[in-house]
Amino acid sequence: xxxxxxxxxxxxxxxxxxxxxxxxxxxxxxxxxxxxxxxxxxxxxxxxxxxxxxxxxxxxxxxxxxxxxxxxxxxxxxxxxxxxxxxxxxxxxxxxxxxxxxxxxxxxxxxxxxxxxxxxxxxxxxxxxxxxxxxxxxxxxxxxxxxxxxxxxxxxxxxxxxxxxxxxxxxxxxxxxxxxxxxxxxxxxxxxxxxxxxxxxxxxxxxxxxxxxxxxxxxxxxxxxxxxxxxxxxxxxxxxxxxxxxxxxxxxxxxxxxxxxxxxxxxxxxxxxxxxxxxxxxxxxx
Length: 286
Description:
9 strands, 48% helix, nine-stranded mixed beta sheet, alpha+beta
């Protein structure tokens, strides 16, 4: 199985940590001189925002296909696997590094923007954005400016405001309102799952480490996901298994042990229970 390439951030020196790429130009550059084809799955080591200005098409993020049209914005986080598919649209790809975020974004904004570090608890697709062109024009003007004094700071604040507006638009389509009491608990749980999913998939272990009852933790998680804490843990593990199968040449046995399964048979049963396929069948279907 061919390994999914990991794409690092590359930009002109003066733009360093931020770049605005025309989609048509990006796709037209696919030739023998490139070491990867953006239409094939690849994992990002940076953040990206795909903005559609005309036409329609589709894009894949973490194995799920999203339909795109004018006004669509697709947020892709560092570490996610994505691929350009039907590119019958025009638009831009805004790319920026983690260092860019940490240097120039306010901490409060980072906490608000789920795309950055809480991507798997929110949908990456935002639709019907009416302010895309406004911000794209600002980015283009600033990047073209001969006066580069404080340019990175200016671009970062534009981007920060744009992402915050996208987050507010996304929230307006969400029926579940942000529960200020439960949200910090949910984020703590989410972070623990990311850190400890290889060690335990037991809700009680997470609840105890957070000083909560399993019942209360379930209530918190259901507020945001409509699923139990156990469902959340299991679905995150399934995603990590799929990512490992997609992005490495490791055997299924190696993947099973790396992800915390004592026996390959348990690994197989777990995966089949949640996907109706064995890991081998899933791998063969790719």
